[in-house]
Fold:
Amino acid sequence: MCHQTIIFDMKLENKKIAIIGGGPGGLTLARLLQLQGANVQVYERDLNKNARVQGSPLDLHDESGLAALIKANLFEEFKNNFLPGADRLKIMNESGEVFYSDHETKLEENFGHEHFRPEIDRGALRKILLESLQPETVVWNSHFISMEKQNEGWVIHFKNGQAVYADIVIGSDGANSKIRPYITNVKPFYSGITMLEGNIYDAKNTAPQICSLLNGGKIMAFGKEKDLLMGQKGNGEIGFYASFKASENWGTTSGLDFSDKGQLLDWFKTEYPEWSDRWHELFESTATPFVPRPIYCIPFDQTWDSSSNVTIIGDAAHVMPPFAGEGVNMAMLDALELSECLTSDKYTSLLEAISFYETNMRKRAAIIARESLENGERMHSETALTTMLEFFSGH
Ligand SMILES: Cc1cc2nc3c(=O)[nH]c(=O)nc-3n(C[C@H](O)[C@H](O)[C@H](O)COP(=O)(O)OP(=O)(O)OC[C@H]3O[C@@H](n4cnc5c(N)ncnc54)[C@H](O)[C@@H]3O)c2cc1C
Structure:
């Protein structure tokens, strides 16, 4: 028997929607639009669904990431896959002394508690979203290169030589979005902070001391203008970041070979001179290459004129420093709000729907981006440890 979902609103009838980028924002949007019967494809540059998704676990918030998952009917899957206890936190100094820990109290909190921020692996979140989509929704190995107008829509070109037509293009292709320039020439600015990302496999065996220090949760260690941030993942891995002030092109100008663990350990010893050697295990156990990530932020007053056939969500629209843990949450909230605008009969045209979404999104993102940037400044200040202790003790 064929179940056909009816589109509740006429704006999307007979329209092909191309979502560029299958990160948390793009996949959430695809799911929400498919639930409304829309014709959606996601074009993702990764070669296939098994491509590694890096990074520490993410905490999802009630009013954004979790709200989107609830609307997507995926809350139960989330509950089956979240990492109980991974939100527990220790705050430490350079020597590894613990100044704050909620390991004894945190497990009492649960869904519905105002401070409960459940964590999930990026890979697990991607899997839940992928499995919720209709078969063949994601077209892998589709690296967007360019597009040009045709009739009311766009012809989109990919690196593999393929081209497709879509009536509406939605860019969810992350911080270095190739769709964003079709909408605005406003560029994000460099925040002054770079994060060096490392990932440790089979951490219990390869980094046993750090593993037992983490005890299934997260550590934020603050020194003078330099931090180490790390988190336990569900699959036995540890993701960590050395976070510090550097020039924008540090990754290319430092002269470091990011595949050489020994070089990176020497770099750590030189650049983090006050730090105890108990942290060395992080560098000794990391699977190379390390990845330098310069951290960018959108100008808070960014604006542009909306179009009826192209828009952006997530980092493509509002990249921001990760120091308020809001990036994924904002991307998923964009997906929720855009899907509601596109399928609501409140807006009589696509232009009106997209314009309403973009105006709200820019306003909301500016507030959160400012907060994220300010958190970043606090976390990389001379007094980071005391400032952050005051912050967390207040919660
Ligand atoms: C070091 C670091 C730590 C972070 N920590 C956190 C955190 O703890 N909590 C949090 O909420 N956020 C965090 N963030 C931010 C978070 O990762 C992003 O905000 C979030 O991933 C944005 O989701 P997205 O779907 O918009 O884009 P992305 O997750 O970047 O996904 C974009 C997708 O598009 C694909 N793509 C890119 N270019 C193309 C192309 N040309 N053609 C086709 N596909 C393309 C990519 O392969 C990818 O799958 C962190 C960011 C960084 C850099």
